[in-house]
Amino acid sequence: MNVTTVVPQLVQILWTLVTTGYSTEHSISGVSDPFLQVQILRLLRILGRNHEESSETMNDLLAQVATNTDTSRNAGNAVLFETVLTIMDIRSVAGLRVLAVNILGRFLLNSDKNIRYVALTSLLRVVQSDHSAVQRHRPTVVECLREPDASLSRRALELSLALVNSSNVRAMTQELQSFLESCPPDLRADCASGILLAAERFAPTKRWHIDTILRVLTMAGTHVRDDAVANLTQLIGGAQELHAYSVRRLYSALAEDISQQPLVQVAAWCIGEYGDLLLEGSCEETEPLQVEEEEVLALLEKVLQSHMSLPATRGYALTALMKLSTRLRGDNNRIRQVVSVYGSCLDVELQQRAVEYNALFQKYDHMRAAILEKMPLVERGGTQDEEAKESKEAQHSEAALVPTEPQASKLLDLLDLLDGTSGAAQPPPPLEPSSEGTSVHLLDLPCVSSAPASIPNLKVFEREGLQLNLSFVRPPGTPALLLIMVTAINTSEADVTHFVCQAAVPKSFQLQLQAPSGDTVPAQGGLPVTQLLRILNPKKAPLRLKLRLTYNHFGQSVQEIFEVNNLPVETWQ
Amino acid sequence: GRAQPRPRPAAAMQFMLLFSRQGKLRLQKWYVPLSDKEKKKITRELVQTVLARKPKMCSFLEWRDLKIVYKRYASLYFCCAIEDQDNELITLEIIHRYVELLDKYFGSVCELDIIFNFEKAYFILDEFLLGGEVQETSKKNVLKAIEQADLLQEEAETPRSVLEEIGLT
Predict the structure, then answer these.
(1) What is the value of ipTM here, to two decimals?
(2) N vs C: which end of chain B shows fewer Cβ within 10 Å?
(3) Positions of the region Disordered (chain A) (predicted)?
(4) From the list A25, A78, A407, which residue is nearest B89 (CB)?
(5) A395 three-state secondary structure
(6) H, E, C per residue of A257-284
(7) 128-167 in chain B: CB under 8 A from chain A
(8) Tens digits of per-residue pLDDT, A15-36?
(9) CB B95, CB B69: distance < 8 Å
């Protein structure tokens, strides 16, 4: 007995059961023996997976069950749900898959909370592979954001974030922002990060992008990730036509509220850089704003003195004050005073800055203007966000988790690595003009230079023809740096699409993922996808690396999480 | 690095717990091998998690890498742990069927019935589920099997004289 003989028999049994085999003692609320139906569907799912012929035999039956099952009670819905799971897992025809997604969409409108829950969870699983079908149900999903039950709204959030694309980004961001205002506190961080990520990927205009980030920072500033500040300053710096607009918006926001640290940091930076535009330039896009020099200085001093300001924020404010000494027209007595006062500040970082700036005023006054010139735009070092589907997803979501999450915890966090703490990529240090100019920024490090003693390559993953290899380089000039090149090669006959590789390291390491060369690994050993990882290991601790892969292959969406073993000692010693 | 996913155990349902609102365990059925210490730990954590749920929340939650399906009937929580690929909605039906069986057998079952006749509750569960899977889908057949088992037990309990046993009287 093999698969080809068993499947038609099962199909026949289920067909008879559904059409004629009614027996009162076996049925539940009018559905013939739902336990048996579910078990048969489960078995068909396992047999039909990756098996073209069996899947074909089942198509009609699945369509029949999907359309004719009575859904007024839970028993019928349970059978329907199992049918949907089976359709999604086997090699079904496109029409059937759309039918399955529509059933899930109908579930979303059901008054029973449990049914909505399973619908959201399942839609999250198929959103990558059947994106357009799920898009049709976007309005319903967005409605589910308003659910009072936290686990449902969490899933709705993951799914909504997965559904954002370039055509619906404005509407979706609006919905997500109103959700952000009222959502439970544990979802705030994920929502904020999700909105920022979506904005980054699909922003229609720069101005909209800046506005969106501004709004998120104002609403949920304390919950955003560390690199949001760096990203925003980068973004503003790059949009020359929007300098005046940005600095005015930020000034107004700062004048209202100095407690949200990321907002304060960006605003201080902007005011420092573009203070002249704030006072002189006219901007049609905002309301006319009359600002006096003294007001600006007073605001920055307020930030400096406020007990709500973090040390980093105060550093931003001090430097901004210093930059204004060349941008403003009045004499600089007030600024000099502040700077000399902070020369004896207890915070070492502030003290150092103040002392140096003091020196700029006194001995090096002739160099001051040149040093405090406007910053040239620094190229992005490829700091990438590490999120799940869901997150997972987020993450998942995606998310793991998410989904992974999720898992999804698991929402947009990457996996908890190893010691239970995640080594997320550290942001590049704030872009400040430092008058010593000797600090080595992560971005300044040379790219792959001549390799010294070569470390052997490592094959870390293999599944159905997709292979992942790691090659290592320790550039000679920087002993703490390790560069890893991840190469994905596909020897099977089907392309691998939507390939995403994420990595996590223990907390004492710093990890930077550069953008991959692509997200499709062509079949038959075509051009491999490569991605560069930069790992800083100042403490020379033993390297541990966990990788998470998500991709589509043979019509299935695959997620693999594994730790890389057998890392050669030369990678970290 | 691990290239192949870990093979999963075959049980659909990993375990079922029944506990009261005060957190007292009334019934525990395990379909996966675990040490006593682990069972106690799982029970303690899960009971805490489920009792903390508000009444309006949905019947499913994710806990460790399992899905938990729970439903409250009067003063008892029926709680099942299933795996990632299992169907939550049918698990709700399984729980409901078990409650119906108990109800039919005890006649309007309440927590006291289960406390004082816990071995019967286990017998009924074992007739309905085997290894975590449904083995008998007919309510009538399960109850009939229990009835017959009861009869055997009664026969064994009534004392018979030696002569009766060899058939001489």
Answers:
(1) 0.87
(2) C
(3) 381-402
(4) A78
(5) coil
(6) CCCCHHHHHHHHHHHHHHHHHHHCCCCC
(7) 133-134, 137-141
(8) 988 888 778 888 888 888 999 9
(9) yes
Distances (CA, A) of A185 to A150, A174, A213: 10, 19, 19
Q: Which of A561, A562, A494 is nearest to A524 (CA)?
A: A494
For residue A382, the one-letter residue type is G
The pair of three-digit structure tokens given for residue B99, joined into one six-digit string: 């409650």
Beta bridge partners of A510: A536
Of A118, A17, A37, the residue nearest B87 (C-alpha): A118
DSSP 8-state class, residue A540: -
Among candidate residues A505, A501, A351, A508, the one with its CA nearest the CA of residue A416:
A505
Q: In one letter, which amino acid is B53?
A: R
Confidence of residue A542 (pLDDT cuts 50, 70, 90): confident
pLDDT at A339 (0 to 100): 86
Residue type, A169: V
pTM over 0.80: no
Q: How far apart are CA A316 and CA A338, in angstroms?
A: 14
Please list every residue in chain A whose beta carbon sits closer than 8 Å to the beta carbon of residue B98: none
- pLDDT tens, position by position, B105-123: 999 999 999 999 999 999 9
Alpha helices in chain B (DSSP H): 36-51, 88-106, 111-116, 118-128, 139-157, 162-166
Does the structure show a pLDDT above 70 at A380?
A: no
Chain B: closest CA distance from residue A82 (Å)? 7
